[in-house]
Write a structure and sequence with these properties.
- With 367 residues, the protein is α+β, with helices and mostly antiparallel strands.
- The protein folds into three domains: 59 residues, no CATH class; 72 residues, no CATH class; 199 residues, no CATH class.
- The chain has seven helices and 15 strands.
- Strands 1-5-6-15 form a four-stranded antiparallel beta sheet.
- Helix 3 packs antiparallel against helix 4 and helix 4 packs across helix 6.
- The structure holds zinc ion (ZN).
- The site of zinc ion (ZN) has 8 residues, from loops.
Length: 367
Amino acid sequence: MVKQVTTLAKRTPERAFLCEVSNAALQQSLNDLRTARNNFFASLSGKRKGRRVGAPRFKSKHGRQSARFARNGFKLRRNGRLYLAKIGDLRVRWSLKDPAGRSIRLPAEPSSVTIIRKASGKFFVSFCYTTEDDDTLPPTPRDTGIDLGLKDFAVLRDGNAVPNPRFYGKGEVKLARLQRKFARAKKGSRRREAQRVKVARWHERIANQRDDFLEQLSTRVVRDNQAVVVEDLAVLGLSRGRAAKSVQDASWGSFLRLLESKCDRYGRDYVSIDRWFPSTQLCSSCGAVTGPKGQRGLRIRSWSCPCGVTHERDRNAEINIRREGRRILAERQETMSKKLAEGRSSADRGVKPESADKRSLRDGTGG
Ligand SMILES: [Zn+2]
């Protein structure tokens, strides 16, 4: 199979372009395909846990491009350049900083490197390496729930609201103008290509601003809290209406993924609560289900419970989410200590510490 899709394929005129790149990159593609296919079938048969994995897709020669080089396909030069098989030495603008803010190259020997060309034409290289660092942060007694929403992106403990930055909304007018110009340009013309790059750059700009915002917010939340409690993402679609859905969904999803991985890395507790938990409807004072319900309740920002307390919607939801999280954590700890006690009584088995974790980082070369 390897020979058929590499060596033999190169002899056909349609796929002669395969000769232009290193064999290492082609083989890596095949390895990736095998992994993707195995994951897909394992996911279908239920052997693989977690999120559903889709079928592998063909790579396109348009838009974002990437190639991965394993150990034998690249070398790091002393002078900071990166050698890639069949491409040669590349100048890299290293962007990693150590905790003191000094520029460094890589903290460990990389096992693979991926080179990416964005739709805008900018190049990036991403290294994969393993470290033994223990990043666990000192414990804090503080915890927080997070109520995600449209008006405020997130409401944290004590009604601490993080306004929705709406990067997309702000850039939309300009984006629409760029896209109109692109659509009017003659197909295949140089002007059209220039216009395409402008649109792609604008998209990347918005995405970068959004990613930066999500990274900073998630880091702050994880640093300040020992436990972070969130609602299952499935619940958000149901309870927050249709407005700006696709864009907002993407941000919520990435935010929760960032939170979870950072909690894992820094030794914090991440709790995702059940999709049926009525976080907005519960009165956080008396525990009755008296809050706004359904589609019509979406606009109600504050409400009064018959018990006499007036609630601000998001703040009340955060309290409920945090409480439910504490309950789940207590339950987890109980089963953990039970298991530990059982283990101790049956045999003297050591607990294996988890140490190495895989991380990848991104460095930019000039665009
Ligand atoms: Zn009440």
